């Protein structure tokens, strides 16, 4: 098969979407194309570790690959957020022994063998005696024991020993920080992302719904023609406390298990993951499970059994997408990691249950119109009852496709849109294969004819196949939601 024709039939098989993080290991056009053909639906740009000039080349390559494969590919711009980091430490690394004492001081010039600094000026103001300070991805733990008058330093004792290094992350579990939700760097990176028309913006270290509103206001201030959707990264205790209000504001969620596993007891992470995913499913918004999913494949060409089970459980929990980070960004086997992720996902999806007749209160969470919700519910029921080969959705905004996606039907979903930005955003929707076409603006008969011709070319439809089409018809001055059942001849 001509590679430019590949993608749609294969994508209809794997319903859970795969996000691949771009880094030095996969930055070439050839490598990115390999990942797209292996099953990557979206590419993540990590602004914490990349410069704009380099990222511009990556965006250009992704758009070139998308055009060549003739299928939408989404781009997620992941903002760094208010990450708190250590300043420079003596000799680049310090051994912290249990019971030893360290001070955090405000002035960088006062750093020394037992004096630490931070890039966050408010650290000394925000913490107090009894609070914990975690360093080196949570492997080193300090407890604040004294806050002398003057507010220029705090004294800590080491409770869990280890080595700390310059510029490592600092976590303050349970401490409400006064750091802004968007840093100056985030504001600059966001402007760049909007200029390059990314499809999603990831907001790191979300604490409350107000953080989401602040990012949305920052996006709207640029008046973009196609505003990207917001992905709230859940990785702080404060976010867990405010999860319902956050879900009411955001467009999607990422369960960022790396920092979340530092912020809370790692033993709680699996249960929290399940809870967050369940709530996202109820709120009818996409949810991504991320971090260390196939971590050993950074070095090895095969994952551990535990990692395979982790990916499978994320699918069974209800994730719309699973994400690869270091595995594709800096790993030795980026393509093999995506291929393995796709294989595990495909096997796991056999056990995914339909949610079409789940809790009725989830209907109230839908962001589609009530009538549209009813039509999509009927379409999903008809498709499974008739053994249809395809559910077709004609949509301008993508909301109808999302409503069908959340039913978790085993019937493949083809979503047509005349808006390139909508088609790319639908790359995150479970079970949805997006296609950009002007056919959505034609009559229902012409739309059906287009789908049949497309399906036969892609070898997903044959004579006798049945399709269920959801769209709109302008039979009067107002548009009407429409469902068509069509038998292919």
Q: What structural keywords apply?
A:
489 residues, alpha/beta, 8-stranded parallel β-barrel, 6-stranded mixed β-sheet, disordered N terminus
Describe the structure.
Residues 1-7 and 358-364 have low confidence and may be disordered. The longest helix has 18 residues, at 52-69. Helix 17 (420-425) links the parallel strand 18 and strand 19. The radius of gyration is 24 Å and the shape is elongated. The chain has 489 residues and is an alpha/beta fold. The strands form 4 sheets. The chain has an 8-stranded parallel beta barrel with strand order 1-2-3-12-13-14-15-16, surrounded by 7 helices. Strands 6-5-9-8-7-11 form a 6-stranded mixed sheet, covered by helices on one side. Strands 19-18-17-20-21 form a 5-stranded mixed sheet, sandwiched between helices. 44% of the residues are buried. It has 18 helices and 21 strands. The chain has helices at residues 8-13, 29-38, 52-69, 123-126, 184-195, 209-220, 237-241, 243-249, 257-263, 269-283, 305-317, 326-329, 334-348, 362-365, 370-386, 399-405, 420-425, 444-457; strands spanning 17-21, 42-46, 74-78, 93-96, 101-105, 115-116, 132-135, 140-146, 153-160, 162-165, 170-171, 200-203, 229-234, 252-256, 287-290, 321-324, 390-394, 413-417, 432-436, 466-473, 480-487. It starts with 7 loop residues before the first helix and ends with a strand.
């Amino acid at each position: 098969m001509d590679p430019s024709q590949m993608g749609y039939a294969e994508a209809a098989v794997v319903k859970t979407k795969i996000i691949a993080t771009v880094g030095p290991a996969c930055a070439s056009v050839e490598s990115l194309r390999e990942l797209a053909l292996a099953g990557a639906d979206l590419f993540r740009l990590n602004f914490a570790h990349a410069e704009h000039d380099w990222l511009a080349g990556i965006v250009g390559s992704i758009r070139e690959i998308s055009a060549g494969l003739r299928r939408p590919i989404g781009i997620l711009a992941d903002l760094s957020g208010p990450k708190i980091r250590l300043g420079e430490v003596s000799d680049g690394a310090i051994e912290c022994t249990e019971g030893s004492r360290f001070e955090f001081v405000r002035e960088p010039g006062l750093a020394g063998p037992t004096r630490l600094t931070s890039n966050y000026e408010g650290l000394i103001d925000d913490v107090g005696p009894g609070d914990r300070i975690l360093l080196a991805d949570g492997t080193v733990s300090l407890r604040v024991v004294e806050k002398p008058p003057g507010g220029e330093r705090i004294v800590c004792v080491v409770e869990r020993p280890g080595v700390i290094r310059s510029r490592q992350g600092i976590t303050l579990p349970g401490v409400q920080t006064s750091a802004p939700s968007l840093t100056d760097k985030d504001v600059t990176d966001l402007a760049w992302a909007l200029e390059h028309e990314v499809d999603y913006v990831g907001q790191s270290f979300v604490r409350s719904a107000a953080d989401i509103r602040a990012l949305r206001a920052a996006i709207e201030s640029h008046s973009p023609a196609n505003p990207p959707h917001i992905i709230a990264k859940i990785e702080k205790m404060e976010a867990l406390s405010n999860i319902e209000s956050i879900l009411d504001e955001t467009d999607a969620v990422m369960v960022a298990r790396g920092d979340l596993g530092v912020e809370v007891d790692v033993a709680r992470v699996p249960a929290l993951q399940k809870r967050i995913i369940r709530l996202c499913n109820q709120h009818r918004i996409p949810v991504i499970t991320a971090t260390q999913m196939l971590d050993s494949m950074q070095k090895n060409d095969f994952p551990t059994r535990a990692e395979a089970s982790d990916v499978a459980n994320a699918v069974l929990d209800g994730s719309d997408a699973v994400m690869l980070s270091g595995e594709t960004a800096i790993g030795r086997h980026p393509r093999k990691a995506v291929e393995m992720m796709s294989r595990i996902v495909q096997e796991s999806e056999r056990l995914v249950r339909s949610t079409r007749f789940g809790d009725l209160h989830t209907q109230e969470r839908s962001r589609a119109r009530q009538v549209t919700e009813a039509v999509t519910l009927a379409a999903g029921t008809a498709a499974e009852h008739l053994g249809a080969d395809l559910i077709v959705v004609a949509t301008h905004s993508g909301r109808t496709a999302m409503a069908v996606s959340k039913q978790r039907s085993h019937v493949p979903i083809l979503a047509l849109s005349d808006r390139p930005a909508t088609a790319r955003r639908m790359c995150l929707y479970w079970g949805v294969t997006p296609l950009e076409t002007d056919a959505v603006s034609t009559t229902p008969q012409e739309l059906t004819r287009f789908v049949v011709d497309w399906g036969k070319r892609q070898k997903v439809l044959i004579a006798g196949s049945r399709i269920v089409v959801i769209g709109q018809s302008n039979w009067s001055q107002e548009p009407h939601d429409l469902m068509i059942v069509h038998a292919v001849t």
